[in-house]
Amino acid sequence: MEYKVAVLPGDGIGPEIIEEAVRVIRAVEEKYGLKVELNYAPVGGAAWEEHGNHLPEETLKICRESAAILFGAVGGPVSEQNLPKWKDVERTALLGLRKEFDLFANLRHIRLPSYLSGASPLKNEIVKGGFDIMFVRELTGGIYFADPKGRAGRGSGEKAFDTMVYHRWEIERIARLAFEIARKRKKKLTSIDKANVLTTMSFWREVVEEVATEYPDVNFENMLVDNAAMQLVKNPGQFDVVLCGNMFGDILTDEAAGIAGSLGMLPSASLREDNFGMYEPGGGSAPDIAGKGIANPIAQILSAAMMFKYTFGREDISKDIEKAVDNVLERGYRTLDIALGNVKKVSTKELGEMIVNEVLKS
Ligand code: NAD
């Protein structure tokens, strides 16, 4: 079996952590006797230097010819944000890719294993058992994209406006995906809305409830977004799969990432209906630590694990990689971002190497 993947390392720590994910992919090839064709392409500031564009046509071509994109990170230091090399880089590169490939579903796996509970800013009594939440966020609709939006008027009557729109088909497809995922996990799904105030959101609730009837085996509940924001810090362990529209998902996933401790641990996937996907770490290019060999490669490695599961249908390989990561962490090896207490501090490369060895030996 041959899989084709576009590899877009990007900027900052992107190339360093992608390198470790690629080593894990090579180990998977060896262990499972399969071939993964990796085609590298520039993106972000790195692409700007070569092509004067954050998302060159040549990169898009390589992505179109692949079944998945493994993406590192883009962006430069805050002090250089106004240089043409960095200006609007996230918007051009990331939103450009989401739009080009109609990546309507964003999956963020936010997990705090119990042995890392000390990395969470929450009290130990709340997180000592850890938590494991899969957020399923609608990514191409809602208030961020609908028209009309703009500004009008003058003086004290001047106003600005955005429009929130969801079509039945948009809600149905993201809800079905979330229920399918819930079926393969603990069979629990919480749908987030603001049905008490927004017409779009009472429609969201109505459509999700209709889809829920197709999944009687999944324990389903609705939750208002304000309550969800509070429940996440009071008792994150109550959630399994959380379904959200675009804006609420944007906010709640960052809150959940915050309580999980380090951005270096959180993978994500953005999917098209035919399972084409873009896989990337939850964090950015981390210019503060780039080039120092200390970045945590786990988010990128687990993003590759998600790729095997969601694009290539190889849940066995995905689980194998996740287990390898857990085994290495449970033995006490950590990169600096998660090095609390009496642990063994290792570099990006050393941690990658240990995960590779674990994949090969198990
Ligand atoms: P960031 O996520 O890059 O960094 C925030 C903090 O988390 C930093 O202290 C960083 O060192 C740490 N961190 C992130 N990933 C880590 C890892 N793998 N291992 C260890 N520590 C890690 O966010 P920021 O500092 O706000 O943004 C930096 C640049 O990244 C900006 O140019 C921003 O536009 C860009 N950015 C890109 C993406 C993306 O490409 N998807 C996402 C967010 C931010």
Which secondary structure elements does this structure contain, and how are they paired or packed?
Blueprint: E1 2-10, H1 14-32, E2 35-40, H2 45-51, H3 57-64, E3 68-73, H4 89-100, E4 105-112, H5 124-127, E5 131-138, E6 150-152, E7 159-161, H6 168-184, E8 188-193, H7 199-212, E9 219-224, H8 225-234, E10 241-244, H9 246-260, E11 267-271, E12 277-281, H10 298-310, H11 315-330, E13 333-334, E14 344-345, H12 348-361
Parallel strand pairs: 1-2, 1-3, 3-12, 5-10, 8-9, 8-10, 13-14
Antiparallel strand pairs: 4-5, 4-11, 6-7, 11-12
Helix pairs in contact: 1-10, 1-12, 6-7, 8-9, 10-11, 11-12
Nicotinamide-adenine-dinucleotide binds at residues 13, 17, 73-76, 90, 94, 263-264, 280, 283-289, 295-296, 299, 337.
What is the overall shape?
A: globular
Query: Strand-and-helix sequence, N→C?
Result: EHEHHEHEHEEEHEHEHEHEEHHEEH
| Uncertain residue ranges | none
CATH superfamily of the largest domain: Isopropylmalate Dehydrogenase
Number of domains: 2
Strand content: 15-25%
Could you say what the CATH architecture of the largest domain is?
A: 3-Layer(aba) Sandwich
Summed over residues and divided by their number, the pLDDT gives a mean of: 96
Q: Numbering strands along the chain, what is their spatial order in the largest sheet?
A: 2-1-3-12-11-4-5-10-8-9
**Ligands present:** nicotinamide-adenine-dinucleotide
Question: From the alpha-carbon coordinates, what is the Rg to the nearest angstrom?
Answer: 20 Å
CATH uppermost class of the largest domain = Alpha Beta
Largest sheet: 10 strands, mixed
**DSSP E strands, number:** 14
The share of residues in helices is: 40-55%
CATH topology of the largest domain: Isopropylmalate Dehydrogenase
- Given helix and strand content, the structural type is alpha/beta
Question: What is the helix tally?
Answer: 12
